[in-house]
Amino acid sequence: MPTIKDVAREAGVSIATVSYVLNKKDQNIPPHTRQQVLNAVKRVGYSPNINGRNLKSSQSRLIGYAWHLLPPDQVNPVLDRFAYYLAQEAEALGYHLLTFTYPREDPLPVYQELIQTGRVDAFVIASTEVNDPRIRFLLDREFPFVSFGRANPNWQFPCVDTDGRAGVREAVEYLISLGHRRIGMIAWPEDSISGSYRVEGYLEALHAHGLNTSEDLLLRGENNETAGRNAVAHWSSLPIDQQPTAVIAVSDLVAVGVMHGAEE
């Protein structure tokens, strides 16, 4: 296997010069010398020892990402695509994802072990919940992470999220523009923070137009088709003047259940 000495011999430069170029510390090296080294790397087929480089820099070049197994009646295509593009962007920057699982009732020991053993340089958190213990744990230890989703309005941490509140508010406004005045919504359980923002958008739009927000119109269920079917069954049991004439579904999967329940 070719070594850095072979590269230096082929390029006609010192081993230190090769090291500077390969570690991108070549600001003071002439461009033609840098290119000379890179060409030599290709000719001899040299590949740097990643483990040795990572050990020297005290970095693993790995980003931890927890993978969750959903119940058979649930799907989450958003997170599937999120994980794919997360890996793609990490690899473009010289990193890789380390996927792992943990007991849902007690995730912290797994995160603690990954930090203590130096397995990862940072985490990406997804599927957040209200007052998510993982986020509080990483904040307290000042360990690098980014979250896909919020957790507590009083916690300051880097995150990205979709604007579910604005999206649902716009959907309700559209239904109101069509003449609907009794609009139902099927939401996720109250511990879902992204679902809570969507409910806020629903209620904001109704309040802005002085419309009914009775308990019979806002129902909750898991992210599955059954939740949509159950909601339609409940609304169908109400007197005709209390039934919604239009429905907001918190997700596509729930909406499919609404459509099937309505057809039946």
Structure summary:
By secondary structure, the protein is of the alpha/beta class.
Which features would summarize this protein structure in a list?
264 residues, alpha/beta, five-stranded parallel β-sheet, three-stranded parallel β-sheet, 12% strand
Strand order, main sheet: write it out: 2-1-3-4-5
C-alpha geometry = elongated
Largest sheet: 5 strands, parallel
Unreliable stretches covering 5 or more consecutive residues? none
Radius of gyration: 27 Å
How much of the sequence lies in strands comes to 5-15%
Bin the helical content: 40-55%
Structural class: alpha/beta
> What's the overall average pLDDT, rounded?
88
What is the number of helices? 11
Report the order of strands and helices.
HHHHEHEHEHEEHEHEHEH
Assembly context of the chains? single chain
- Tell me the total number of β-strands: 8
**Amino- and carboxy-terminal Cα gap:** 68 Å
Note down, in words, how this protein is organized.
The protein is of the alpha/beta class and 264 residues long. 48% of the residues lie in helices and 12% in strands. The protein has helices at 4-11, 15-22, 31-44, 50-57, 77-92, 108-116, 133-141, 164-177, 193-208, 225-236, 252-263; strands at residues 62-66, 96-100, 122-125, 145-148, 159-160, 183-187, 218-220, 246-249. Strands 2-1-3-4-5 form a five-stranded parallel β-sheet, sandwiched between helices. It has a three-stranded parallel β-sheet with strand order 7-6-8, sandwiched between helices. Strand 6, helix 9 and strand 7 form a beta-alpha-beta unit. Helix 1 (4-11) crosses helix 3. It is elongated and about 90 Å long. The protein starts with a helix and ends with a helix. The model has no long low-confidence stretch (mean pLDDT 88).
